[in-house]
């Protein structure tokens, strides 16, 4: 592996203009494809096939043509001025005018008058009108939105307070461009501090942006054919940028190191790609395994996001192995620090801060106190992980939005006027085609469900035109994310056999509340299989890379510690509210159902990144004859500073999303940032050297039979070193030196 990559690096350096032109052509082709490709539409894939709430949605779409269970909706809430009632003549006239105006819109399926639907609070201070559209929120025309907004403004001019909930006018989360810009700016500062050279700081940024550009344009170009979208590519953009910078950072850092050892530019590029490139390849593979493993979860959207992100990581690896050495060939000295570029300053690593680095001092500190560092690190992460045991998963809705949004104000007004359950009604769809009297069967079913403890009210069943399906809603007393509401859903479903026997019909429960409950349960059940798949595959990969039984096991256990600690931090802030105000979190509650899966997958891949980069240098020193303790010091001497810089860059990219006004994005950004913090600085920089110090030579133990069975990938470059030493001994020059050109 190392010898092959060595030749690849030297070839890319020598053929720099051809390699650079090739990447420019690739970017141009996929960019043109993205510009010419039709916009990606809805591919009709269910969010999570197999769960009851999704089956019910599909049944509604099948039996009630013209109405989409996932169609846009608006719940317009009217609040009378203090001392007045919505039933007053002037207020009622304004409400009737709004309903009739909205009902005339071409995309509106129905607009229900609150006075006819008994949607008026007991004190008559509040009322609401429900507007259902025939199309999804993304397909809602600007004309339809304008019509609703103008009608709302007219009602407000009449003196009513009017707020709008639902999906029709829902505020969309801010585009990720600002967050990514913040991440790139912070990454530039970190790279400049790390390298002390504008060129060295700019090269990883440039190549990462090119890699992300290729990936995102490819996603857009294939969007219509494969059902991809910009939302699908969000994870690809975020991870592609983060790993693209990191992988280029490791190659450039190794190039600078080889130049200080006296190698000419082309040889240094070959050695950098041969050594650091091997770590890049296997680090990238671990991330790809973690992302592609999202297919195990069974959510089509997650599968697409994982595959797209895995593709972006693969592009990042290829860019680091080819474009980076090509650009180094164009400016071979520009990436070096001014101190190294001065005549007579090549070589002598100690003079350039390598031998006496902070990483060396830290490694020696840990080696003197391995037990204390290990116990303190495990105890600290264990304490942070404790809140994770109280994790509650759900899907935050309008209640989690800032109070400045009309959706949040509508939610609060409905809760105050009608009870918390009005914000999370349950939708029941009954298949009544087997009943002798479908209407009577549906009425009986609705009456029985109304008698369920905790159900406040049930609407009259509405039959479809064919008369083989009925649709009605049940309003629980508790809020959408409360445990009592989950109990009501379970109770209604438990009563199904008796109701089916009595009425000769069957029914299923759906709606946003039931969907959130089912999704959370399904994802919770999928977490263990998903974790098992990616851990086992990555353990096998690390076993091949490090040729050790204990090092991969240590890596996996360290990952579990860091991911549990980060989940605990997320629960403490976003569920319990500890320090929530500092992050601008206005409403705490259940953690987004997709969050644990995202966190496990992404953090596992990134954690293995740091493991490969750090331990590969330690193993390289050990294989080349150093004692276990000294190998740890050597590994930290060469890689600690770069790993720290890479982790800080990751944290910068992810932290940019904490500023988002959208609770879900804020949670993801915070969770990933603290996960990188725990894994890079506690697990990899503290626990790894402590464990290796305690294990000594045993850390690299591998049964002889397994050693023979495993393929040899030579990530530490032993074959490359032997080949170069043999060439030097025989006097045969295996490469052509090129004079260093001025930057």
Oligomer: single chain
Shape: elongated
Whole-angstrom Rg: 30 Å
Give average pLDDT, whole number.
84
For the report, how would you describe the main beta sheet? 5 strands, antiparallel
Which blocks of ≥5 consecutive residues have pLDDT under 50?
A: 346-356, 732-743
> What is the β-strand count?
11
Count of DSSP-assigned helices: 25
Q: Please bin the fraction of helical residues.
A: 55-70%
Strand content: 5-15%
Query: Between the first and last Cα atoms, what is the distance in angstroms?
Result: 31 Å
The structural class is alpha+beta
What can you see in these coordinates?
- By secondary structure, the protein is α+β, with helices and mostly antiparallel strands.
- Helix content is 62%, strand content 7%.
- The chain has helices at residues 2-14, 16-36, 52-63, 89-103, 142-157, 177-195, 198-221, 223-226, 234-260, 265-292, 300-330, 338-341, 358-368, 370-385, 406-418, 438-450, 483-494, 496-503, 512-546, 550-575, 595-623, 628-655, 663-695, 704-709, 718-730, and strands at 73-79, 108-112, 126-133, 161-166, 393-394, 426-431, 455-458, 462-463, 469-476, 506-510, 591-592.
- Strands 6, 7, 8, 9 and 10 form a five-stranded antiparallel β-sheet that branches. It has a four-stranded antiparallel β-sheet with strand order 2-3-1-4, with helices on both faces.
- A hairpin with a 5-residue loop joins strand 8 and strand 9 (469-476).
- The longest helix is centred in the last third of the chain and has 35 residues, at 512-546.
- The chain is elongated.
- Residues 346-356 and 732-743 have low confidence and may be disordered.
């Amino acid at each position: 592996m190392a010898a092959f990559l060595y030749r690849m690096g030297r070839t890319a350096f020598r053929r720099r203009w051809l390699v650079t032109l090739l990447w420019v052509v690739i970017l141009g082709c996929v960019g043109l494809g993205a510009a010419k490709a039709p916009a990606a539409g809805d591919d009709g894939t269910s969010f999570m096939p197999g769960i009851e709430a999704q089956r019910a949605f599909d049944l509604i779409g099948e039996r009630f043509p013209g109405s989409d269970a996932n169609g846009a909706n608006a719940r317009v809430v009217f609040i009378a001025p203090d001392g007045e009632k919505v039933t007053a003549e002037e207020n009622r006239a304004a409400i009737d005018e709004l309903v009739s105006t909205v009902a005339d819109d071409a995309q509106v399926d129905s607009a229900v008058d609150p006075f006819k639907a008994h949607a008026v609070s007991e004190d008559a201070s509040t009322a609401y009108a429900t507007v259902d559209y025939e199309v999804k929120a993304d397909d809602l025309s600007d004309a339809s939105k304008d019509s609703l907004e103008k009608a709302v403004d007219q009602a407000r001019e009449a003196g009513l307070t009017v707020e709008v909930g639902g999906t029709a006018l829902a505020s969309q989360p801010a585009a990720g461009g600002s967050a990514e810009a913040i991440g790139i700016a912070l990454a530039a500062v970190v790279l400049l501090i790390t390298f002390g050279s504008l060129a060295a700081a700019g090269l990883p940024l440039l190549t990462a942006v090119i890699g992300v550009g290729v990936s995102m344009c490819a996603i857009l170009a294939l969007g219509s054919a494969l059902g991809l979208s910009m939302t699908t590519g969000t994870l690809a953009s975020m991870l592609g940028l983060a790993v693209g910078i990191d992988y280029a950072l490791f190659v450039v850092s190794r190039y600078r190191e080889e130049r200080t050892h006296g190698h000419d530019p082309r040889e240094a590029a070959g050695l950098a790609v041969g050594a650091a490139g091997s770590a890049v390849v296997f680090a990238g593979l671990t991330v790809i395994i973690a992302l592609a493993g999202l297919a195990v979860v069974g959510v089509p959207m997650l599968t697409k996001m994982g595959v797209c992100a895995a593709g972006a990581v693969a592009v990042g690896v290829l860019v680091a192995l080819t474009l980076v050495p090509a650009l180094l060939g164009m400016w071979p000295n520009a990436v070096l620090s001014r101190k190294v570029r001065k005549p007579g300053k090549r070589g002598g690593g100690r003079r350039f801060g390598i031998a006496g680095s902070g990483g060396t001092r830290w490694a020696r500190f840990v080696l003197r106190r391995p037990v204390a560092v290990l116990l303190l690190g495990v105890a600290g992460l264990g304490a942070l992980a404790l809140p994770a045991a109280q994790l509650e998963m759900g899907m935050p809705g309008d209640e989690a939005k800032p109070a400045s949004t009309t959706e949040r104000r509508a939610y609060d007004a409905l809760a105050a006027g009608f009870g918390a359950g009005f914000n999370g009604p349950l939708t029941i769809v009954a298949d009544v085609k087997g009943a002798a009297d479908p209407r009577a069967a549906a009425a009986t079913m609705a009456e029985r469900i109304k008698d369920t403890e905790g159900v406040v009210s049930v609407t009259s069943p509405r039959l479809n035109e064919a008369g083989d399906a009925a649709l009605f809603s049940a309003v629980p007393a508790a809020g959408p994310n409360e445990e009592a509401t989950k109990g009501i859903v379970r109770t209604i479903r438990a009563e199904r056999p008796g109701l089916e026997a009595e009425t000769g019909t069957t029914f299923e429960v759906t709606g946003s509340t039931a969907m959130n409950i089912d999704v959370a349960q399904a994802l919770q059940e999928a977490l263990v299989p998903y974790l098992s798949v990616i851990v086992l595959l990555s353990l096998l990969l690390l076993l091949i890379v490090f040729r050790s039984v204990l090092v991969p096991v240590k890596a996996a256990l360290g990952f579990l510690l860091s991911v549990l600690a980060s989940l605990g931090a997320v629960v403490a802030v976003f569920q319990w509210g500890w320090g929530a105000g500092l992050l601008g979190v206005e409403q705490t509650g259940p953690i987004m159902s997709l969050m644990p899966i995202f966190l496990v997958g992404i953090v596992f891949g990134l954690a293995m990144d740091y493991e490969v980069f750090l331990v590969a240098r330690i193993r390289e020193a050990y294989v080349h004859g150093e004692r276990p303790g000294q190998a740890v010091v050597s590994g930290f001497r060469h890689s600690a500073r770069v790993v720290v810089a890479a982790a800080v860059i990751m944290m910068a990219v992810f932290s940019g999303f904490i500023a988002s006004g959208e609770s879900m994005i804020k949670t993801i950004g915070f969770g990933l940032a603290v996960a990188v913090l725990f894994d890079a600085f506690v697990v990899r920089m503290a626990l790894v050297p402590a464990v290796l110090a305690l294990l000594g030579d045993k850390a690299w133990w591998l049964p002889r039979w397994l050693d023979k069975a495993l393929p040899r990938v030579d990530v530490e470059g032993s074959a490359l070193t032997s080949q170069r030493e043999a060439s030097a001994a025989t006097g045969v020059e295996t490469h052509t030196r090129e004079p260093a050109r001025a930057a």
